[in-house]
Amino acid sequence: MATSLGFRWLKGRIHLGLGGRVHRLTDPDLDDTPTGIISEQAVDTLRAATQAFIGYPIETEHYTDFFRWHADTLRGYKTLYERCAALLNRLARERQGLAYVECDAMWRRKILEPVFQIRRTYGFLERLRSGLVERDWRRFDLYIFRPVTVLFANTDAWRLVGYHGWPGTPRGLQRYTQPPG
Amino acid sequence: MSQSTVAIVGSGIAGVTVAYRLVNAGHDVEIFEKGPNYPYPHLPQFREQVLYQYTNPIYHLPTDLQQIVLSGNYPADPDEERYLGLGGSATHWGAITPRIPPPDFKTHTLYGYGVDWPLSYDDLEPYYCDAEHLIGVSGSDANNPFAPRRSRPYPLPPFALSYDDRVLAERLQARGILLQTIPQARTRLAYDDRPGCQNFGTCDVCPIGVRYSPTHHLIRAVRTGRCKVHLNASVRRVRVDERGRAQLIYQANDARTEQEHAAKIIIVAAGAIESARLLLLSSSDRHPDGLKLGDHVGRHLTFHHNWRGDLRYKENFFTGTTGAATAQTHQFIDPPGRGRYGGVRLEFDARGVFPALPFSEHTPREVIEELQVARRSRILRFHAESLESAKKFVALSDTRDRFGDPFPQVHYESSAFDHGTYGLVQQIFDKFASATGPEHAVLGGVDDGYFSGYHHMGTCRMGTDARESVVDQFGRVHAHPNVFVIGSSNFPSPGTVPPTLTITALALRTARYILDRL
Predict the structure, then answer these.
(1) Which of A6, A75, A97, B243 is 20 to 30 A from B486 (CA-CA)?
(2) Shortest distance, CA B226 to any CA of chain A (angstroms)
(3) Largest CA distance in chain B
(4) Three-state DSSP class for A67?
(5) Confidence band (pLDDT; 50, 70, 90) for A124?
(6) Is pLDDT above 90 for B275?
């Protein structure tokens, strides 16, 4: 009995250890870098990237507030955001000779194509490949564009499907009793 | 050794309610809370969770201090259904506050199952009124022919039915089913230094203190200078010496040594699972100076069985315009044939049906498509009574915490009674679907489609007979007049409605009892 339990424990540790390492390959952690105030240029670039990524008309203030808070509060985000902004700007200059924010909507989306591709990787091997080969883009998806999607789902998406406000804003106690429209 | 007049284990709604009353009467109270601080009003948590999608680990205990070892076939995780921190689980609750109806206090006498409570609805009724005024309940019985009698009106007017509630209410009424507004501990208007509701809709972390949290009164108690709170302090034992003096043995979570605290009265108010665990750890079966408790501690555990029915309609209801549910029916809480199955309270959840995958996995277009479906869906919540059995209990597990004390084991298996209640739930769900005309309707499974509704009860039940119960009707341990156990752990049976108002009313009654004797 003791041997069996010991073997199960050992097997569990190996599984957990291996699983954890593989997970870090497919879904890389954030780098352990300092918090700080993110540059306004990086915020402007991320705002433009958010608009391009969402593809629907949105209010951008809560997204930029989100970026500023994360950069200022949680380790790793400031560096990640500024690296993402720098990469988007480099690609924009290479392809259009412009800063990312100066590109039109079509080019902004084209430059984000690696994110859209990563979004379409469902199988383990594809995720492993993108985690190894496109490590930065994978990080940008995990720590920027996925949270942006959730923020969109919790805010602007409500307006877009016909609600007058979204949870988290004071909506009052009259309108919810009235017919929509 | 430190000392106080009263020492309370746990800073949840039961402990805080008693503390607040005792402190206001001039007594000194010390509260021992195992978990961390949890700010109130919950604006910091609102900002982190709602605006920034951040779950702050400082508000949670690590796994070497909080765990439940689960066995049986319960399909959810009871450890995720409680909060161990300042204010306890009622800092996260839904704040739905109906009274337990009179028949639920005597199911054995009326229907031949379960055990009767050692007190009646009439005994508790004045304390229900006090509890509603203490925590600020908004409600009305005007449209509820099933509501029990009351001697005082609700302190605040009710939240009106939502637009979609009213549409469905009309269809249901045509088939003889009546919907009512829901009494809830949210301030419809400004009340007792809490503002009126502005419908942020994020009630779990209400940023302005509209939804009641026990911390509202705990802060006031501390301001008197007669209430002290020990945060991050694990109470490991309660004991009574040969002269009958009560003591707590506790240890700061980051300390190497334990400390003693003596009190005239010790009150254990740590939730049905942790209270049972502490009593089991403190039992004279394990320690010569332990508590004489009998063999009922940990037994008679009950959960509510909260089944969910998803309904999708053709028309847009714009579901989700409030944070809390606004429509319920009490029509099935005392059904014909009761005894073969339990009573059921129904509630239309405020939220729509959202996808199983998190939105982070979606594209923005998919998000829009999912919300378009969600806005024309409703969730019907079946809040069902359950019944104790030998296969529902709390015991001590073989897994130990950082101090070497066993974590609780929860064993829970649904019973034939629960399956019978599910049969009633199916009938009601079909009736609702047939009356309201959804294009799609699906009900969760009997054994895999429910959870407790965050309601854990029993384990230290009250009764008149010391051989059949742990405490008397005031929560006093039979063999130890200076040790009390309060909260939902006292419930002899779970009743058909959410327990928190009853927990508060019982705590007020215990406070009155203690005040008369101090």
Answers:
(1) B243
(2) 37
(3) 72
(4) helix
(5) low
(6) yes
